[in-house]
Design brief:
Elements lengths: L10 E2 L1 H5 L2 E13 L3 E13 L5 E4 L9 E3 L3 E7 L7 E7 L5 E15 L11 H12 L9 E7 L6 E6 L5 E10 L1 H14 L8 E10 L1 H9 L3 E4 L2 H10 L4
Parallel strand pairs: 11-12, 12-13
Antiparallel strand pairs: 1-6, 2-3, 2-8, 3-4, 4-5, 6-7, 7-8, 9-10, 10-11
Length: 246
């Protein structure tokens, strides 16, 4: 499916408004204009436009990590651009910061949109589900004076394991894993971004809780202001059965 396509008018990306996910493979260059300026030269890339309003640019490496991205809320403007062999220019603008991603497109190889529907979310294994249950029952394990708001607190991208309040009344989102990896920190970061938009909850801070936390995940969590807590599964079960950690 290889073709050059010249858009005839400026428009917003339908997927940002209609809830679908849009996959575009294009030969393009990418310029980030914001706190710093960065440039990716012309090359074939995947542009992923998701229903949550995010736009990310990927190469055929780096696993799940994009080359560049814009988190929601943002808008995508498409317009024809006839200079230096290009056919279109897409400008992604962040709704709050004004940061921009500018994609100069030379050729579109593939462009499709898909409705994925509501995702059921990750299914926790037995240990993770039990850890969540135990920690919710004994939320003061995380700190004296802490209170539970709800387990499986719903968000647009899936439920947060535990939402609670600390001794000062601040809202805390807790993500629980058996093994704490970078993916878990990224997941909690996305939850925090959504929860902090709710004026009834904000400000919301994060706690990443696991039986074992990988060093790379701990570094990333610390960089994002997320607290890491190592859980002792046996001790938590002891709380449940004997009323004490020890």
């Amino acid at each position: 499916m290889r073709r050059k396509r010249r858009p005839g008018r400026e428009r917003r990306a339908e997927s940002l408004r209609l809830g679908g996910v849009r996959l575009v493979i294009a030969r393009c260059s990418v310029d980030y204009v914001g706190k710093l300026n960065a440039h990716l030269p012309m090359a074939p890339r995947l542009v992923l436009i998701k229903a949550d309003g995010s736009v990310s640019v990927h190469a055929d490496d780096r696993a799940y990590k994009p080359l560049n991205w814009m988190n929601p809320p943002c808008t995508l403007r498409e317009e024809p651009y006839d200079e230096g062999g290009a056919i279109a220019r897409w400008t992604v603008t962040h709704g709050k910061s004004g940061e921009r991603l500018i994609l100069t497109i030379e050729e579109i190889l593939h462009d499709s949109s898909h409705e994925l529907g509501v995702d059921p979310g990750l299914q926790k294994d037995g240990v993770e589900a039990h850890l969540q249950e135990l920690l919710a029952e004994h939320i003061t394990t995380l700190g004296e004076g802490w209170t539970l708001i709800r387990r499986e607190y719903p968000t647009a991208i899936g439920p947060v394991d535990i939402l609670c309040r600390d001794a000062d009344g601040g809202t805390v989102a807790v993500e629980i894993k058996r093994r704490g990896e970078i993916d878990g920190v990224e997941q909690l970061t996305r939850y925090l971004e959504l929860l902090n938009r709710d004026p009834h909850l904000a400000p919301v801070r994060g706690v990443f809780a696991a039986q074992e936390i990988r060093p790379q995940a701990r570094v990333l969590a610390t960089d994002r202001g997320i607290e890491c807590v190592t859980l002792d599964y046996d001790a938590l079960r002891g709380i449940r059965h004997e009323g004490t950690l020890f």
